Amino acid sequence: IVDLDGEPILPQKIVELERIEFDGPDYVVEGLAYCEPSEVLVVNQATGANIYRIWINRIDLLFEEGFDVLGFASSTALNRGFRVWASSPEGVYLAELAGYFQGKGLPILVPWLIVVLNVVVTMLNSYYERRHDISIYSSVGMNPSHISGVFLAEAAVIGVVAGSLGYLLGLGTYKFIYMVTPTLQVKQKVSAFWSLAAIGMSLSAVLMGGVVAIRNSTVITPSLRRRWRTERGGGVAEPYVVPVPVHVYEEEVERFVGFLESRLRGAQGGRELATRMIRVTEAAEPRGWVITFSYVTVNANMTGIYTRNALTVEQGGDGAYLVKFLCEGNEEGVRATGGLMRRIGLDWGLERARVVAG
């Protein structure tokens, strides 16, 4: 009696194929051979499980009529790695794993790094497009860590959503591949662990890319060194002295002064507060500029504010030009004028490259 694969249905036993004699113990070569009919013992599964040193050699299954035998054979060979013979009205088929490609471990780092780089570029573009929002955040007192947290939280949400959708779409792609090319069998890993792993990898990629982008966006996000401090020059009657945290180089100082004058003149049309009496004076030795202006209330419903201000641009010890702001007025007026200068300083940081190149 033979099975579907043409081999005898009899079980096998270990036999001695060859014995090589030595001075010590002999070397015995063993192999498998089919049992004689008289050596076959038919028992049920429970009894066979208690017999020592036996193993399953083959399993014969008989299915009800209408059962998809070929599909069961294919899935068993793919998922378990068994050689499966299947008999159907169309013929006898063999399902087994031939050559296959298995992806795991380190190769997944390559697409992960590509995703990180894409996130870096996307986040930098997002920072640049929302630079005016960042200026507002900074003006109302948010420090760089708070501003960065907003973007990282946004990136985390994108990572979770993208990881979940990517995992679900990936499972659907396996089905689509099988429908298009039935001969190509793909084994997917469907489990809670792999679903969480997919979300975790997506989340780590966007957060890593977000952190890298934030660390390289110091031009857009104000640094902690840009804190403003207000001090009186000497006595109560002296003006407030506000060092402006902006360094300007020789090749861009003239454009910087022009930028300041342009923004101050643009503030002349303010609805509540406006600049007046703007004057720019250039000194030859040492080279520098002094911009004087006043900042006043133009809205009759607001508390009266009037400050007299001087903005000096002078060369420092390292060759760069330093900016110092002197403001004379009450504390409320100083805060209002300081807010104006802070916005102008942030705008310079955002538009510096464009202004210098133009």
Task: Explain how this protein is built.
The protein is of the alpha+beta class and 358 residues long. It folds into three domains: 12-91, no CATH class; 106-215, no CATH class; 230-357, 2-Layer Sandwich (TATA-Binding Protein), CATH 3.30.310. 41% of the residues lie in helices and 22% in strands. It has eight helices and ten strands. It has helices at 45-48, 69-80, 109-129, 131-139, 144-180, 192-215, 253-266, 331-357; strands at 12-20, 27-34, 84-88, 91-95, 231-232, 240-248, 273-283, 288-297, 306-315, 321-328. It has a six-stranded antiparallel β-sheet with strand order 5-6-10-9-8-7, with helices on one face. A hairpin with an 8-residue loop joins β8 and β9. α3 packs across α6 (192-215). The longest helix has 37 residues, at 144-180. It is rod-shaped and about 120 Å long.
Stretches where pLDDT is under 50 for at least 5 consecutive residues are: 217-227
Number of domains: 3
CATH architecture of the largest domain: 2-Layer Sandwich
Enumerate the strands of the largest sheet in spatial order, edge to edge or round the barrel: 5-6-10-9-8-7
Descriptive keywords:
358 residues; alpha+beta; TATA-Binding Protein; 3 domains; six-stranded antiparallel β-sheet; two-stranded antiparallel ribbon; rod-shaped
Provide a concise account of the structure shown.
By secondary structure, this protein is an alpha+beta fold. Helix content is 41%, strand content 22%.
Strands, helices and their partners?
Layout: E1 12-20, E2 27-34, H1 45-48, H2 69-80, E3 84-88, E4 91-95, H3 109-129, H4 131-139, H5 144-180, H6 192-215, E5 231-232, E6 240-248, H7 253-266, E7 273-283, E8 288-297, E9 306-315, E10 321-328, H8 331-357
Antiparallel strand pairs: 1-2, 3-4, 5-6, 6-10, 7-8, 8-9, 9-10
Helix pairs in contact: 3-6, 4-8, 5-6, 7-8
